[in-house]
Amino acid sequence: MSRIRVLEVMEATGGGTKKHLELLVTNLDRSSFDVTVACPSARHPSYGDESTVAELQAAGVRIHIVEMRRAIAPASDLASFWQLWSLMRRDSFDVIHTHSSKGGFLGRLAARCAGAKAVVHTAHGLYFLGQQGFKRAFYLGLERLASRLTDCFIAVSESEKVMAIESGLFRPDQVVVIENGIELANVDIDLAQLQQEPGLNPHRPIVGTVSRFNPQKDPATLLRAIALLIRAAPEIQFVWCGNGELKSQAESLARHLGIHEHIVFTGYREDVLELMALFDVFVVSSLFEGLPYTLLEVMSLGKPVVATDVVGSRDVVMHEETGLLVPPQDPPALAEAVLHLLRSPDEAQRMGQTGRGLVAHRFTLKRMMAKTEQVYHKLAWHSS
What we know:
By secondary structure, the chain is an alpha/beta fold.
């Protein structure tokens, strides 16, 4: 049997979606699958990471550049749709797999207009969950429209599956749960050198995050929690890795709260895994997720975590087992949970080791790849 031809469509060439796609396309069985990626040359410059295309090409992956903007832009979106449609009409793909909101909507619409055989979608976090009022209804409506163009929805967490079904996007039989997976981290680093570089004191507690500055990650809540933390324990140091469109606003808020000098803003870093090894506690304040790679990575390092109790995060952070869950948009609860772990080092160490064991046994790259390849085989077989 000839190889299954797969087209991966992605706009979000950064963050966890980028990581997911790179892991996916570089680990697919090349003897069974012939994969092409359609993506922009770069995302918004505020994200700092423009390496996707070069990294995929270096790995021998076929790339087709389709410039897509994250925000709704009718003229640009029409041009992107036309490029995707033309590619799909020219090359007969057995499976078209779309990712995230913009790539997911334009890719699925183009696929159906081009007469695609099989269309599968992964949301990596349902965007409407972070919206309110009219905007929530609008983006939910777009997702419901696009869902009618979809043969299979891959949820990256059980809670994302539940939300997709309860929101009327898909029938249960259309949804497959394939949790994100990674290789267990084994980091060989010079801790002393890393501590000196951002100006950290190795004898004081370090709390950190790896989080983009965008509405989904709710940086304002985290900053207000940091202010409460520093008020309660001035010796705490905070490291924030990441870029994003809200970074300048976040730094202004940090100055307004009087905590800017307590935070090391590293920007985008290639060595983020090594930096996370410095943290005593890892914290995120997201409003929603798919299933965050940063949580898997920091847990694989044996670090305790504090996360908001939202879709995606609650699937990997088991409350009082691998970390602590707190309500979203609640700075006092976030600060209290971090303080609890800092003041209970034995409990924090136990949670960190339990988390590493969970990642090692459940959130594995091998499992993610096997299940994804099964979906591709099934879709290609049914469409033949």
